[in-house]
Amino acid sequence: MSEFMVETHHLSKRYKKNAPLALDDLNLRVPRGALFGFIGPNGAGKTTTLRLLAGLLEPSSGEIWIDGHSVQQDPRAIHEYVGYMPDSFGLYYEMTAWEYLDFFARSHALSAAYRRRVVEELLELVGLSTKRDEEVGHLSRGMQQRLCLAHALVHDPQLLLLDEPASGLDPRARVEMRELLRELSAMGKTIILSSHILSELAEICNEIGIIQKGKIVASGPLAELRHSARPGRTVRLHILSDPEQALAVLKANPQVEEAYPLTNGNGKQPGTWLEAYLTGSLETVADVLTFVVQEGVRLVEYREAGNELEDLFLQLTTDETYEEAAA
Amino acid sequence: MSAMASSSARRRLKVRVNPVIVREMRAQMRGARAFVILTGYLLVLSVLTYGIYRFTTLVMASSYASAVQSATIGKLLFVSLSFLDLLLICFITPALTAGALSGEHERGTYDLLMATPLTPGAIFWGKFIPAMTYAFLLILASIPTFSIAYLFGGVTVRDMVQVVLILSATATMLGALSLWLSSVFRRTSRATVVAYILVALLLFGTLFIWFLLGLRQSRQADMMDSSMGLYTIPPYPLYLNPLSALGSAILGFGLGDYYYGFLFSLLTSNGPFNLQYAAGMQRPLWQYTVSLYAMLVLLFYLLALQQLKPIRRWHFTRRELAQSLMPLLAIVSLGYVTFGTTWASTGLPGSGTVLPTPGPPEVPIEVIRPAPPIEKVEPALDPDLAAPALQDFVAHKLFPEPAFCSFFLLEGTYTSTRVELKGAIYCQAFTVQADGSLEPGSGEQHTVRAVLTPQSDAWIVAESDLDGVDLGTIEVDWASLEQDVLKQAQSYRPVPTATVYPYP
Fold this sequence. Notes:
By secondary structure, chain A is an alpha/beta fold. Helix content of chain A is 37%, strand content 27%. Residues 321-327 of chain A have low confidence and may be disordered.
């Protein structure tokens, strides 16, 4: 049993002879049990990678191992380990929800008794028990998406490949999908999901890979990536006292590298938001906060800035663009 | 890995129903589509049956002075219905499977299907069997409309079985063809269009090639007699034509001639849709067709298997090779059984024999007497197949050519167990005198009636108003006629030609 659920070696894919590489020398390692987020702009190669991993596409060169098994050797055996939910997922609209799941359960050669149980359990899991006998075509988009996710789970796969599982969902359905993924992750499954929406992934993934133009720009645990991009922390402070004075206090602290007022603070609320970039760990944050309060700044709220991943993404992908322009 | 172990335990299953079949069957009969097609199909068939019935009785009553026999109407109805049914099947079947796999692409379910451990074979048969079940349902449902033909008689159960066999073989081949196309193209519209183009080529392209072969041949041999040309055109293109197959199975009694003048000249004896005997053909044409179709189904299956592999197409694991071996062997052995004996007689490359090209004949008399093809018919042949040939045979035996007389067949009834002929021999130019010499111009007419029945390996004359006449060595009043005519003919310059009218 290998340590990594998914490993790729120098994976490349070219769709047509003279077309540019859709995937360029991809080396990917996803540890067992990870919730791996695959981020990249449209056309970066996310779907290509996932389809390659699912054994639905033939790599131009390179190799893929899933749980230590080579995909090229026997793609059909790989299908036992992998649950795949495509981006533009299709459904058999004229079937009822349970028939739909029953079909895939049969396809995985599950015995009749087990099949019946697993279909009910999955409908329960994705919250469609009440829609059991409803035709798939009559379900809402969110329900269809959950049903499609359920189809990928019928054979209890160790690895789930989900291509844009949250696309086209309303906020509520999005939250439900996120909860579902957390639940599945807690069940010990390795999940790889792709998205072009960063905040979505940042919230649930513990590992991410950033892909651009068929190349992995960065990958690893989220914290590590954050650290490597900007080895400090950005904090936001909501204060009621004079912002000028508070900024001065902040800048006086040696651990604060930068401090500036946020221009887009909420005008309805009294007080101001300041942002500061600190070097160091959570301890440092505590120190700085204590210092600020001791200096007489009236602090009401403190928050870590949320958009770091986006910054990171922009930083990494623009760097790439610049490099290319320079070259 | 305990989870995996337990999951493999759950998978122990003895008999497994193909899940794709279950899905397709569920989807197929749900909704109105299946019923609408079936109803429309039967409606078209019934309306046209009635139309053909009216038309047949009308035309036959006007074009033949004699009373129309019930059995003849029965046969005509049966033949028309069979052809109509075949055309409808050719039209419907591609639509049943052309969208089977491209539809999965269009719905976006193709990847879902590919991501399951289902084998390409399971997917192919899962799509193919339900579609064919439906096609067979259509064919079976059409059988009751044939019952009207039985009301009139003249049709045997064997005829019906042959028709159903040819219809099913055609449906199966077209279904497999369209399914393969559906695996090649990602759009149902494209697969459907290509399927219908191929169906049109099958129905008309083969016919066109056959005519071209005939043209080439007649130019090569400088043969003016088009009816002789038909016998010697290679029939191979027509092996693929379902209409020819059907015609060869049910039109064998010269029945097509009733259509002459008001339907197709294609249906006349030994026309492309009624090809009873042709160069190199060792058995009824439809048997070649059914065998070829079986081979094609297996071929399309093997081709579709490669298309249905998401990756590593045309790479074969040992297991896949073993699995492909059976269909391949079946194709080869079917081909050998069907064409093995025929091939040697074709003179085509690789057959080992070269057909002699017609050279200048030694005796001029033999030149202007083209050997009637019916002379080649062995008595051991299938009586159904031999019937029209037998008619010519009898006609020629009764009055050997060349001569200046004509034989008119007034009436002929043919079944597999009995052939009855009535005809008139009318000597326009000569009469035979008592001393055996020919005298020109009496215009004497004799009527002849003969009934033939098959014995173990030959047709014999059971009754005849020419007592003691053996058709093998006919001795009419004009016993030495042939000799005399030959002598007379040789003394003439140029050599006169014979006019023989086997048909009214």
